[in-house]
Amino acid sequence: ATYLDHNATSPLRPAARSAVLAALEVCGNASSVHGFGRKARGLLDDARQDLAHLFGAGSGQLVFTSGATEANNQALLTAKQGPILLSAGEHDSLLQSCADAEIIPLCENGLVDLEWLAARLSRKPTPAMVSVMLVNNETGVVQPLEDVVALAKSVGALVHCDAVQAAGKLRLSFSELGVDLLSLSAHKIGGPAGCGLLIQRDGLSVTPLVRGGGQERRRRAGTENLIGIVGFAAAAREAEQGRQDAMDRLGAWRQAFEDAVLAEAPEAVIYGDGAPRVANTICLGVPRLPAETQVMAMDLAGFAVSAGSACSSGKVTPSHVLRAMGVEPDAAASAIRISLGWNSQAEDLPRFLKAWLALYDRSRAAA
Ligand code: PLP
């Protein structure tokens, strides 16, 4: 079968696999003073340094977590006095963990409504934090983070950015982005699942979410997930090395695919195509064909794609991201996501298109 669901999780990269296998042989707690512990500590320090360097941060600014869900949960705890503003397109790990957040609307093209944000920031109470993702997991739309940061900083609000879907796709530098907090996840770039990062600016007052031992400079308790962390660093190194070439390649394949879809399936819609997007993601909708039907038919035909985000497939509710872009519920419920990655091949999309058009033609004939 052909895997076209990299935004849900990306297969383990060869370099990450080797690093993980080597780390499996290491017995030692990085907090122990003996030789075994020092060996683990050495691997951990190297991984931390590499990740810090790759993502434009200082190694003391990195806090390893169990994934981006925890990093996002943790980031929200940094907001002390005042409301939290979340964009309507954020991942559920933010939207579902902050019941009283104020929601920044999206425009039709998927970008956050900067005019709304500017107007809100000119009013009291001044928000404690603004959280806007860099790249949306369903549409691939790239948010204007520079503008968000400038607006938020003008009133002294903290800025958090969920950059999970930007890693390996865009140049990503914590210091250049100018945000206070940034979340990342290993398994979206070909590292193991269950490992993430929260990068935080120096001097923030942090309330730990996970409490206990003094690991991660007292910011996140628990014995470090050495295997995950070492795999994360190896995946990040490989992803960054090949990033530009990979994105040029994927972008060309995607363009050809989208042109062909629109030519051969006139009712098809590509969501987010009116905004800047990362090269690997296609959010494709067509009336009459429920996303679940498409996902199952494509699975039978040998292609793995998803209906909306992975977290919302399984339930029939239409994507909250598309709904926030003003897409009607029925239309939103017939959108699928095709996402490419490091092991995608030139023939994957043309073969998928053939199978998908067969389904599309059957549905047209039945209508
Ligand atoms: N944020 C975004 C944008 C995501 O796509 C995901 C993935 O599901 C997450 C956060 C959660 O990451 P994790 O699976 O590491 O908890």
UniProtKB/TrEMBL annotation:
GO terms for molecular function: cysteine desulfurase activity; iron-sulfur cluster binding; metal ion binding. Residues 2-352 form the Aminotransferase class V domain. It catalyses: (sulfur carrier)-H + L-cysteine = (sulfur carrier)-SH + L-alanine. InterPro entries: Aminotrans_V_dom (IPR000192), Aminotrans_V_PyrdxlP_BS (IPR020578), Cysteine_dSase (IPR016454), PyrdxlP-dep_Trfase (IPR015424), PyrdxlP-dep_Trfase_major (IPR015421), PyrdxlP-dep_Trfase_small (IPR015422). Its cofactor is pyridoxal 5'-phosphate. Its EC number is 2.8.1.7. It is an enzyme of class 2 (transferase). Keywords: Iron, Iron-sulfur, Metal-binding, Pyridoxal phosphate, Transferase. Pfam families: Aminotran_5 (PF00266). Catalyzes the removal of elemental sulfur atoms from cysteine to produce alanine. Seems to participate in the biosynthesis of the nitrogenase metalloclusters by providing the inorganic sulfur required for the Fe-S core formation. Belongs to the class-V pyridoxal-phosphate-dependent aminotransferase family. NifS/IscS subfamily. This is Cysteine desulfurase. It comes from Limibacillus halophilus.
